[in-house]
């Protein structure tokens, strides 16, 4: 009986430690300026894409979860890369990854703005499309 109780308390302690670790990671995830920037870019790209689709008469609600499912993992990938790269001493990789991710969303935002009739110089659109070919 005593052995079972000791095993149970060890299990409880490891579960508690795991929960604390998850809470710490979640707090760090949402406190990170890069993650917040990426999530903001995703939401901006979503809002503009919805406006473009609405204007064209092609908007449907069932596409929204797919868009978010495809785009939000960029924030998690960035955060995971940041954690591992800093631990491995490859901190220089983090700003490069952040720049590439933001370039992808910047390209999407510029395309949507152009589709909405906002005057964007053609040279800027071409430059971003060439640079952000990860679309």
Short description:
The chain has six helices and no strands. By secondary structure, the protein is mainly alpha-helical. The longest helix has 30 residues.
Description:
The protein is mainly alpha-helical and 135 residues long. The chain has 2 domains: 31 residues; 100 residues, no CATH class. Helices cover 82% and strands 0% of the residues. It is built from 6 helices and no strands. α2 runs antiparallel to α4 and α2 runs parallel beside α5. It starts with a helix and ends with a helix. The model has no long low-confidence stretch (mean pLDDT 84).
Per-chain topology:
Layout: H1 2-31, H2 33-56, H3 64-71, H4 73-88, H5 93-115, H6 122-131
Number of strands: 0
How many domains, in number, for the residues?
A: 2
Q: Rg to the nearest angstrom?
A: 21 Å
Helix count, per DSSP?
6
Q: Helical proportion? A: over 70%
Using the alpha-carbon principal axes, give the shape. Answer: flat
Residue fraction in strands: under 5%
Averaged pLDDT: 84
Question: Any low-confidence stretches, pLDDT <50, length ≥5?
Answer: none
Q: What kind of sheet is the major sheet?
A: none
Intertermini distance: 60 Å
Derived from helix and strand composition plus strand pairing, the structural class reads mainly alpha
> Which sequence of SSEs, written as H and E, runs from N to C?
HHHHHH
């Amino acid at each position: 009986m005593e052995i079972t109780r000791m095993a149970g308390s060890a299990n409880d302690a490891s579960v508690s430690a795991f929960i604390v670790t998850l809470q710490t990671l979640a707090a760090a995830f949402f406190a990170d300026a890069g993650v917040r920037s990426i999530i903001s870019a995703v939401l901006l790209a979503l809002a503009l894409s919805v406006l473009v689709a609405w204007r064209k008469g092609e908007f449907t609600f069932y596409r929204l979860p797919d868009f978010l499912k495809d785009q939000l993992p960029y924030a998690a990938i960035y955060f995971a890369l940041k954690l591992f790269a800093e631990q491995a001493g490859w901190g220089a990789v983090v700003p490069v990854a952040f720049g590439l991710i933001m370039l992808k969303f910047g390209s999407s935002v510029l395309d949507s703005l152009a589709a909405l009739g906002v005057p964007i110089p053609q040279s800027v659109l071409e430059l971003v499309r060439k640079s952000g070919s990860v679309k």
